[in-house]
Amino acid sequence: SPPARLQGATPARGWAVLVTTGAMNPAHRGHVELVRVAAARLEEVGYGALAAYVSPTHDGYVQPKTKRMGTVGLCNEFRAEVAQRTVGDDDPLVMVSRFEVSQQRFVDFPEVCIVLKRHLQSKGIPARIFYACGTDHASRCGLTKGMRSNIGLVVVPRAGDRLPGEIDDTVYVSEPTPGEVAAFSSTVVRKAIAAKDEAYLARALAPAAAELLLRPTPEEEAKFA
Questions:
Q1: Residue 3: what pLDDT?
Q2: What is the pTM assigned to this prediction?
Q3: What is the pLDDT of residues 109-157, one digit of tens each?
Q4: What tens digit of pLDDT does each residue of 30-45 get?
Q5: In the structure, what pLDDT confidence band is assigned to residue 8 with cuts at 50, 70 and 90?
Q6: Dist CA 124 CA 45 (whole Å)
Q7: What count of Cα atoms within 13 Å lies in the side-chain half-sphere of residue 117?
Q8: In this predicted model, what pLDDT tens digit does every residue of 86-105 receive, in sequence order?
Q9: Pairing of strands 127-134, 94-96
Q10: Distance between CA atoms of residues 154 and 195, nearest Å
Q11: Measuring CA to CA, how many Å separate 65 from each of 29, 62, 71, 150, 172?
Q12: 3-state SS, one letter per residue, for the chain
Protein backbone atom coordinates (compact mmCIF):
# COMPACT_ATOMS: atom_id res chain seq x y z
CA SER A 1 0.00 0.00 0.00
CA PRO A 2 1.18 3.62 -0.54
CA PRO A 3 1.68 4.42 3.17
CA ALA A 4 3.77 1.27 3.60
CA ARG A 5 5.97 2.17 0.64
CA LEU A 6 6.64 5.59 2.13
CA GLN A 7 8.56 3.88 4.93
CA GLY A 8 11.33 2.97 2.47
CA ALA A 9 14.08 5.18 1.11
CA THR A 10 12.83 8.17 -0.87
CA PRO A 11 13.58 7.74 -4.61
CA ALA A 12 15.94 10.19 -6.31
CA ARG A 13 13.12 12.36 -7.72
CA GLY A 14 10.61 11.59 -5.00
CA TRP A 15 7.28 9.78 -5.08
CA ALA A 16 4.69 9.83 -7.84
CA VAL A 17 1.00 8.97 -8.03
CA LEU A 18 -0.51 8.43 -11.47
CA VAL A 19 -4.07 8.76 -12.71
CA THR A 20 -5.78 8.11 -16.02
CA THR A 21 -9.35 9.03 -16.88
CA GLY A 22 -11.75 8.16 -19.66
CA ALA A 23 -15.20 6.83 -20.50
CA MET A 24 -14.05 3.24 -19.89
CA ASN A 25 -17.25 2.05 -21.51
CA PRO A 26 -16.28 -0.53 -20.41
CA ALA A 27 -12.77 -0.59 -18.93
CA HIS A 28 -10.35 -3.26 -20.15
CA ARG A 29 -6.79 -4.39 -19.53
CA GLY A 30 -5.49 -1.71 -21.88
CA HIS A 31 -6.48 0.94 -19.34
CA VAL A 32 -4.72 -0.98 -16.58
CA GLU A 33 -1.54 -1.51 -18.58
CA LEU A 34 -1.50 2.14 -19.65
CA VAL A 35 -0.88 3.32 -16.10
CA ARG A 36 1.48 0.42 -15.47
CA VAL A 37 3.82 1.28 -18.36
CA ALA A 38 3.52 4.98 -17.46
CA ALA A 39 4.66 4.13 -13.93
CA ALA A 40 7.56 2.13 -15.34
CA ARG A 41 8.73 5.19 -17.31
CA LEU A 42 8.65 7.36 -14.19
CA GLU A 43 10.66 4.79 -12.28
CA GLU A 44 13.25 4.76 -15.09
CA VAL A 45 13.86 8.48 -14.55
CA GLY A 46 14.07 8.27 -10.77
CA TYR A 47 10.56 8.49 -9.35
CA GLY A 48 8.97 5.88 -7.14
CA ALA A 49 5.41 4.99 -8.15
CA LEU A 50 3.22 4.85 -5.05
CA ALA A 51 -0.09 4.18 -6.79
CA ALA A 52 -1.78 4.41 -10.18
CA TYR A 53 -5.50 5.19 -10.39
CA VAL A 54 -7.88 4.19 -13.18
CA SER A 55 -10.77 6.67 -12.97
CA PRO A 56 -13.93 6.14 -15.04
CA THR A 57 -15.45 9.44 -16.14
CA HIS A 58 -18.88 10.71 -15.05
CA ASP A 59 -22.11 9.97 -16.91
CA GLY A 60 -22.42 13.70 -17.58
CA TYR A 61 -19.71 13.24 -20.20
CA VAL A 62 -20.19 9.60 -21.16
CA GLN A 63 -23.93 9.45 -21.83
CA PRO A 64 -24.13 12.41 -24.28
CA LYS A 65 -21.04 11.09 -26.06
CA THR A 66 -22.43 7.58 -26.49
CA LYS A 67 -25.79 8.98 -27.61
CA ARG A 68 -24.06 11.00 -30.33
CA MET A 69 -22.12 7.91 -31.40
CA GLY A 70 -25.18 5.67 -31.32
CA THR A 71 -23.58 3.22 -28.89
CA VAL A 72 -24.56 1.80 -25.52
CA GLY A 73 -23.56 3.96 -22.56
CA LEU A 74 -23.01 1.93 -19.41
CA CYS A 75 -23.92 3.79 -16.23
CA ASN A 76 -21.51 5.30 -13.68
CA GLU A 77 -21.56 2.58 -11.04
CA PHE A 78 -21.59 -0.28 -13.53
CA ARG A 79 -18.53 1.06 -15.35
CA ALA A 80 -16.76 1.49 -12.02
CA GLU A 81 -17.61 -2.06 -10.98
CA VAL A 82 -16.42 -3.53 -14.29
CA ALA A 83 -13.19 -1.56 -13.87
CA GLN A 84 -12.78 -2.89 -10.32
CA ARG A 85 -13.27 -6.48 -11.45
CA THR A 86 -10.81 -5.93 -14.29
CA VAL A 87 -8.12 -4.56 -11.96
CA GLY A 88 -8.88 -6.97 -9.12
CA ASP A 89 -8.38 -6.44 -5.41
CA ASP A 90 -4.75 -7.50 -5.07
CA ASP A 91 -2.87 -5.34 -7.56
CA PRO A 92 0.13 -3.80 -5.75
CA LEU A 93 0.06 -0.63 -7.88
CA VAL A 94 -3.19 -0.09 -9.81
CA MET A 95 -6.47 0.87 -8.14
CA VAL A 96 -9.86 2.04 -9.38
CA SER A 97 -10.97 5.50 -8.31
CA ARG A 98 -14.72 6.08 -7.94
CA PHE A 99 -14.22 9.79 -7.35
CA GLU A 100 -15.51 10.93 -10.74
CA VAL A 101 -18.53 8.63 -10.87
CA SER A 102 -19.55 9.68 -7.35
CA GLN A 103 -19.79 13.38 -8.23
CA GLN A 104 -22.96 15.28 -9.11
CA ARG A 105 -21.46 16.44 -12.40
CA PHE A 106 -18.75 15.74 -14.93
CA VAL A 107 -15.31 16.72 -13.59
CA ASP A 108 -12.72 17.18 -16.35
CA PHE A 109 -9.30 15.55 -16.04
CA PRO A 110 -7.26 18.64 -15.02
CA GLU A 111 -9.60 19.17 -12.07
CA VAL A 112 -9.43 15.46 -11.21
CA CYS A 113 -5.65 15.79 -10.98
CA ILE A 114 -5.86 18.86 -8.75
CA VAL A 115 -8.41 17.20 -6.44
CA LEU A 116 -6.10 14.18 -6.13
CA LYS A 117 -3.13 16.47 -5.46
CA ARG A 118 -5.03 18.24 -2.65
CA HIS A 119 -6.22 14.93 -1.22
CA LEU A 120 -2.66 13.62 -0.97
CA GLN A 121 -1.50 16.89 0.58
CA SER A 122 -4.27 16.64 3.19
CA LYS A 123 -3.04 13.13 4.07
CA GLY A 124 0.58 14.26 4.29
CA ILE A 125 1.63 12.08 1.34
CA PRO A 126 4.54 13.78 -0.46
CA ALA A 127 3.86 12.70 -4.04
CA ARG A 128 3.81 14.44 -7.42
CA ILE A 129 0.71 13.79 -9.55
CA PHE A 130 1.23 12.53 -13.10
CA TYR A 131 -1.60 12.27 -15.60
CA ALA A 132 -1.26 9.31 -17.99
CA CYS A 133 -2.94 9.29 -21.38
CA GLY A 134 -2.57 8.23 -24.99
CA THR A 135 -0.94 10.25 -27.75
CA ASP A 136 -4.26 11.31 -29.31
CA HIS A 137 -5.59 12.71 -26.04
CA ALA A 138 -2.35 14.57 -25.32
CA SER A 139 -2.37 16.18 -28.77
CA ARG A 140 -6.10 16.95 -28.84
CA CYS A 141 -6.00 18.64 -25.42
CA GLY A 142 -2.77 20.56 -26.03
CA LEU A 143 -0.82 18.75 -23.33
CA THR A 144 2.44 18.06 -25.16
CA LYS A 145 4.18 21.09 -23.57
CA GLY A 146 2.99 20.11 -20.11
CA MET A 147 0.08 20.64 -17.73
CA ARG A 148 -0.64 23.40 -15.23
CA SER A 149 -0.45 23.31 -11.42
CA ASN A 150 2.77 21.26 -11.43
CA ILE A 151 0.93 18.19 -12.72
CA GLY A 152 3.26 15.95 -14.70
CA LEU A 153 2.31 14.05 -17.86
CA VAL A 154 3.18 10.60 -19.16
CA VAL A 155 2.13 9.91 -22.75
CA VAL A 156 1.60 6.23 -23.54
CA PRO A 157 1.73 5.76 -27.31
CA ARG A 158 0.49 3.04 -29.58
CA ALA A 159 3.05 1.49 -31.91
CA GLY A 160 3.55 3.78 -34.89
CA ASP A 161 2.33 6.97 -33.21
CA ARG A 162 4.17 10.21 -33.83
CA LEU A 163 5.72 10.84 -30.44
CA PRO A 164 5.88 14.18 -28.64
CA GLY A 165 9.25 15.24 -27.30
CA GLU A 166 10.01 14.67 -23.65
CA ILE A 167 10.46 17.68 -21.37
CA ASP A 168 12.40 16.69 -18.29
CA ASP A 169 10.27 16.54 -15.15
CA THR A 170 7.23 17.76 -17.14
CA VAL A 171 6.39 15.40 -20.03
CA TYR A 172 7.57 11.81 -20.38
CA VAL A 173 6.83 9.25 -23.07
CA SER A 174 6.59 5.59 -22.10
CA GLU A 175 6.90 2.42 -24.11
CA PRO A 176 3.67 1.31 -25.82
CA THR A 177 1.48 -1.16 -23.95
CA PRO A 178 2.78 -4.65 -24.77
CA GLY A 179 1.45 -7.47 -26.92
CA GLU A 180 -2.24 -8.23 -27.33
CA VAL A 181 -3.17 -5.61 -24.72
CA ALA A 182 -2.38 -2.81 -27.19
CA ALA A 183 -5.20 -3.99 -29.47
CA PHE A 184 -7.91 -3.98 -26.80
CA SER A 185 -10.52 -1.23 -27.11
CA SER A 186 -13.90 -0.53 -25.59
CA THR A 187 -15.45 -0.65 -29.08
CA VAL A 188 -14.22 -4.21 -29.64
CA VAL A 189 -15.21 -5.18 -26.10
CA ARG A 190 -18.78 -3.93 -26.71
CA LYS A 191 -18.94 -6.08 -29.85
CA ALA A 192 -17.74 -9.08 -27.82
CA ILE A 193 -20.48 -8.41 -25.26
CA ALA A 194 -23.09 -8.37 -28.04
CA ALA A 195 -21.65 -11.65 -29.39
CA LYS A 196 -21.47 -13.15 -25.87
CA ASP A 197 -17.80 -13.97 -26.49
CA GLU A 198 -16.86 -14.83 -22.93
CA ALA A 199 -13.39 -16.13 -23.81
CA TYR A 200 -12.41 -12.81 -25.39
CA LEU A 201 -13.92 -10.80 -22.53
CA ALA A 202 -12.04 -12.88 -19.97
CA ARG A 203 -8.78 -12.05 -21.79
CA ALA A 204 -9.53 -8.39 -22.50
CA LEU A 205 -10.89 -7.69 -18.99
CA ALA A 206 -10.89 -10.49 -16.42
CA PRO A 207 -13.09 -13.55 -15.84
CA ALA A 208 -14.98 -11.81 -13.02
CA ALA A 209 -15.70 -8.80 -15.24
CA ALA A 210 -16.81 -11.05 -18.11
CA GLU A 211 -19.22 -12.82 -15.79
CA LEU A 212 -20.74 -9.53 -14.63
CA LEU A 213 -21.18 -8.37 -18.23
CA LEU A 214 -22.73 -11.59 -19.52
CA ARG A 215 -24.34 -13.24 -16.51
CA PRO A 216 -25.21 -10.68 -13.83
CA THR A 217 -27.08 -12.05 -10.83
CA PRO A 218 -30.60 -10.74 -10.11
CA GLU A 219 -29.08 -8.67 -7.30
CA GLU A 220 -26.51 -7.17 -9.67
CA GLU A 221 -29.18 -6.43 -12.29
CA ALA A 222 -31.22 -4.59 -9.66
CA LYS A 223 -28.18 -2.70 -8.35
CA PHE A 224 -27.02 -1.44 -11.75
CA ALA A 225 -30.40 -1.02 -13.47
A1: 60
A2: 0.96
A3: 999 999 999 999 999 999 999 999 999 999 999 999 999 999 999 999 9
A4: 999 999 999 999 999 9
A5: confident
A6: 24
A7: 15
A8: 999 999 999 999 999 999 99
A9: unpaired
A10: 35
A11: 22, 5, 9, 30, 29
A12: CHHHHCCCCCCCCCEEEEEEEECCCCCCHHHHHHHHHHHHHHHHCCCEEEEEEEEECCHHHHHHHHHHHCCCCCCHHHHHHHHHHHHCCCCCCEEECCCHHHCCCCCCHHHHHHHHHHHHHHCCCCEEEEEEEEHHHHHHCCCCCCCCCCCEEEEECCCCCCCCCCECCCEEECCCCCHHHHHCCHHHHHHHHHCCCHHHHHHHCCHHHHHHHHCCCHHHHHHHC
- Angle of CA points 199, 202, 206, to nearest 5°: 175
Question: Who contacts 218 (Cβ-Cβ below 8 Å, separation ≥6)?
Answer: none
Q: Is the backbone peptide bond immediately before 218 cis, with ω within 30 degrees of 0?
A: no
